[in-house]
Write a structure and sequence with these properties.
- By secondary structure, the protein is mainly alpha-helical.
- The protein has five helices and no strands.
- Helix 4 packs antiparallel against helix 5.
- The protein is extended, with a radius of gyration of 20 Å.
């Protein structure tokens, strides 16, 4: 194994995680670690899912049809490729929020990733309804 990974040390392999480290890992994110943009984005997503505007298994429900139709074929292709993965992230956010109404670190990470993806793709216009 040492030849595959020069940092591998068999003496430390499979050691138990110290309790203080496990406690730190299990903590929910601090409320002040969320930006107002992330909080607003999460609230907007959950409201649109609840209202049925975003249908969790229909990628086209994320698209702003008027803007999408005016896009070049290249930008349409980018939106078409990204929409299913964005919808998967939204489903995961919804499922995690059903388990615990307090947003976890995983939810915050998904929201941040989704927000970055949305901004990157929307340089040409407001393609998505979120």
């Amino acid at each position: 194994m040492a030849d595959l990974n020069p940092l591998y040390d068999p003496k430390t392999d499979n050691l138990a995680t110290p309790p203080e480290v496990q406690t730190m890992l299990n903590q929910a994110p601090k409320a002040d670690s969320w930006t107002s943009e992330e909080q607003t984005f999460l609230t907007d997503i959950l409201a649109k899912v609840e209202a049925g505007t975003i249908q969790l298994y229909s990628p086209s429900s994320l698209l702003n049809a008027a803007v999408y139709e005016a896009l070049s074929p290249e930008l349409k292709a980018k939106a078409d490729q990204s929409t299913p993965s964005m919808l998967t992230a939204i489903r995961e956010i919804v499922n995690l929020m059903k388990l615990n109404p307090e947003p976890s670190t995983a939810v915050q990470s998904l929201v941040g990733t989704l927000l970055v993806s949305k901004k990157r793709l929307e340089e040409a216009g407001d393609i998505f309804i979120i």
